[in-house]
């Protein structure tokens, strides 16, 4: 991408772009993407043909921009907002029901919000506060860290920190979750006096989880866990499953999970969940408050939390969102020393034949984590694809209504060719970011007005 004329200031280049003859058309294209930071540029045409005569009824051609669709807020705030909105609807449907084919009776089912963490691989700098907000000294170095201190989350002694073990844990976090699900089924079956293979005849475990990076560079999983009847959310849950039983079984299953993998020298490494396991009950919507006295959390706020987690990356300042292609990329990456050590370890381990299946070099920029950031069981609620298909169908219907046409009477013809990504100059990037901010502010203001009526 071009940065513009080096002999003029950015303000001058922005003013020149705004005064250019094609600015209004360019602005309309950017607005159509909600100010996407890295839009995909396509050239071609869209047409509506009469299904019988093949006559062209509507035509739009030339260069267009479509959103990049990146879920990460550090890459594209606009597209991450859309992803977060879709994640909210996906999560909320499984929590409160009443939409996406999920009945409202799910609010009466046993369910819990569980957070599973990574174990310790060595002391890290930390920043804790008391209940009244007073900062406590770091347990690693004894200092009082500012909230933005880059040392928070970093190893106190990099020489003894187990970077190798942390990367192998991170790369196998998805397998640990899979074993946790199996263990939870087993714990619930044992509590009912059932054999594990009989559990599916009586109940079904439904869940949706999101991965969130901690400051130390390791993920923990936030999961909504719900117990349905054997046929899913529309089926009554067995009476012997209670929220208290689910809480107990989640903690027992977390403690029982173990996965053994070899280190590079052949020594066995036992991978487990961290000792900090938080399980909270979920209550029916009370959107005006976040938690009540027993730590329970409302459906609406919980769905919003999970949607926010789903757009986070490895850290606001400590991670990289671009794939690592070579050692040179690692040497010059704008990351903290701690995260650079994790990336370097993932890169080095990825070059060993015994870890080929983990594809660590491909996921080195994600600190070794190679799982989905938001995943769900089949019967929890709807899917991202269904939500996006509904949105496309709505826009298609809206277009046909505006043209006075019937869906059965037309054929949609798309013929587009890829032209590139992003904007041509720094002035265009600045203007697009300003438009995105304005759109986001207007959306937030409209939401606040609607919620306060």
Automatic annotation (TrEMBL):
Short name of one Pfam family: RepSA
Top-rank taxon: Bacteria
Protein name as it appears in the record: Replication initiator
Species, as recorded: Lentzea sokolovensis
